[in-house]
Write a structure and sequence with these properties.
By secondary structure, the chain is mainly β. It is about 0% helix and about 45% strand. The protein has a domain at about 45-110: OB fold (Dihydrolipoamide Acetyltransferase, E2P) (Beta Barrel). The protein is built from no helices and ten strands. A hairpin with a 2-residue loop joins strand 6 (about 70-75) and strand 7 (about 80-85). The chain is elongated.
Amino acid sequence: MKLYKVKVNGKVYEVELETVEEVKGSITPSTTEQPKKEVKLDGHAVVAPMQGTILKSHVQVGTKVSKGTKLFVLEAMKLENEILAPHEGVVTEILVAPGQKVDLNQHLLILG
């Protein structure tokens, strides 16, 4: 061990530092990725523009929407982002639920 003196805000402290040997071997990080759900497209998918968490869904299966209709609220980096319908159609399938984390370009719902 080596002894060092450190000055913090005008006060001197003595610090002992121990040399640590390098650990050999490999570490495999664990992943908690959810398996990707296979999506069968019978319409046009609306995808997540960024990764985040779905806070709220404003539509249900069977809802008729026009371009610009609010579909979801997605929280990313503490900001709430509205996901809007890119075109008119009918919601045929909702693939996410409030509280679910989503990745960039993940399918959120299908518009028929």
